[in-house]
Amino acid sequence: MASERVPSVVVVGAGGVGVICALSLCTKGKSEVSLVVRSDYNHVEQKGYQIDSCDYGKLDSWRPHHIFKTAEDAASEGKFFDYIIVTTKNIPDGPVHSKVENIIKPMLLNNHSIDATRQSNILLIQNGIDIEKSILETFDQKEYNYTILSGIEIVGSTKIATGTIHQIGTEKIFVGAFQPDDSRAKEAAKQFVDIYLNEGQNAAEFDPRVRHSRWNKLIYNAAINTTTALIGLDVPRALQFGVDGKSTEFEIFRPAMKEIIKIAASEGIILDEASIDIFTNISRNLMFKPSMCVDREKGQLMELEVILGNPISIAKKNGVDTPILSNLYFLLVMLQGKLKEANGLIKFDEETCRIVN
Amino acid sequence: MASERVPSVVVVGAGGVGVICALSLCTKGKSEVSLVVRSDYNHVEQKGYQIDSCDYGKLDSWRPHHIFKTAEDAASEGKFFDYIIVTTKNIPDGPVHSKVENIIKPMLLNNHSIDATRQSNILLIQNGIDIEKSILETFDQKEYNYTILSGIEIVGSTKIATGTIHQIGTEKIFVGAFQPDDSRAKEAAKQFVDIYLNEGQNAAEFDPRVRHSRWNKLIYNAAINTTTALIGLDVPRALQFGVDGKSTEFEIFRPAMKEIIKIAASEGIILDEASIDIFTNISRNLMFKPSMCVDREKGQLMELEVILGNPISIAKKNGVDTPILSNLYFLLVMLQGKLKEANGLIKFDEETCRIVN
């Protein structure tokens, strides 16, 4: 990228994470920020966002530089986006239009048509493992001249009403290159930290070992996110409702976490076993419902494949035994089917007892 | 029992099973039948039952010989009950008064005080394994002079409204002695078949090997009842919503069934593996929700301990590995905790994140 040019950024997904992401960028003032708002578009266009943020205070009628109703609208403006940031849920088994490769497609193609020599950087601020693969399989990396960046975001931020964001936990983001040998991606990740970090407000760090970080986060998500989603319980209740207050921890959480550590090891990624204690204890005494549990209770599809399906595929490929994780997966697949039916994504015929295509 | 005396029977539990049980006995006309009605008492006392039965036709204002509001009321009439039949759910982790040993207590004690030399026969028409043990542990069998009979009931009967019973499936009951060496129990079971069987209407058979039959039924209940309860799905959907329509069957149902067969074998009970196919296919193409699933959806406690907890205890004692069943159990224990909290049986303090005693 030319140094004199202010990078242009588009954020797709205007939930609790996406809006704070746009706000952090705008606060820094080193980029031009577009946000794809979709369902809240009319409200935000007229009234802007109402934000109550522990990092940035109370904001009324806040807007980023540009808002768009769809990714297609953003792409049709004739603007090159140096960073295409996706903050939606990653649900490869969900509706076609919500798959990550389809979300970025209009903007990546538009960038390519504007200037094929200029580098696009796709930043996925999403859960799970192997989420970059469908992009690499869909778009030739040389032809479309892009890098893929990983964002691991820790932020207690929720859209509590239309155009209304409530952030209660300080934002911390780790950004790095999905492909460890891609030096251009590393540079882009470092530049992103530079246009994102607001000292004394949020935190942003370059992540030199993305896969390691993602597997580490998966220790929590694959064990605790999944279990609580299956039962529909916050973490403290899930722990206390076990046999003698112990079986959830010692028969599910900890063995499942160990299975993730074994799968990661089979990929050459050595995780610190201390994470098991940390993640088991992190919300033992704190009322917290992980995201998959929240999704299930809202009747929305869960990020099941990227959190559990993909790690299990890797385990199978590498010959790692995963009795607990596999059982959780095969149970959650049924729950996901129930959610799909409730959302009209599949139809079940009670006469033939079969899914109708 | 003296042959000239008509046996006196009390049925505790007036749901779909209990009312048809009383009706079968009354139709035969060889016993004096009392029914403990509890919640529907006032309605039934005034208007009797409205019954639509595939076995006995449409009945209006039907009543057995006697109705009582509680087991205590039944016991206080000064009447000796030759058969004490329990058709309630068996939930040892439920409220104290609903434990089976407490349900039968007033009548067994009353029988004992009326005539300690006369034999009481306790017939448990309930799901699960080892359900006779709490009775044997609570009441000395010689002192209280009782036998325990096992009833396995197949009947599509439901209480669809207050005092209103709808029976769509012909009743079939298998009755035998829980204790295989108890010849008095075997005689009592055979006599029961005699006072119960209405040729051409219902079916009743003496069961010479009770534990075998119960373990066989457990093949279905421990695998399919449990899984569908966990997700809240009927059996056909549970099967079809698996990965490629297969994982529920091949990764959960069939392996779980095999574990039950292994546990039974460790107890010297050799089950026919053909049951796995039979039970997997029995409701593949038939909309059906097993009882634990129905209970969960009604917000009622599930028969988790007698269907899954007890077999797993036996497996542990005998060194049988049960990865699938144990995982289902530790998940369902959390769901049972959620149901207990919703029913006010436990309290959870969100400040301390602990169950309050």
From TrEMBL, chains A, B:
Residues 210-332 form the Ketopantoate reductase C-terminal domain. This is 2-dehydropantoate 2-reductase. Signal peptide: none annotated. It holds the Pfam family ApbA. Gene3D superfamilies: N-(1-d-carboxylethyl)-l-norvaline Dehydrogenase, domain 2 (1.10.1040.10), NAD(P)-binding Rossmann-like Domain (3.40.50.720). GO terms for cellular component: cytoplasm. It comes from Maudiozyma saulgeensis. Residues 9-179 form the Ketopantoate reductase N-terminal domain. SUPFAM superfamilies: 6-phosphogluconate dehydrogenase C-terminal domain-like (SSF48179), NAD(P)-binding Rossmann-fold domains (SSF51735).
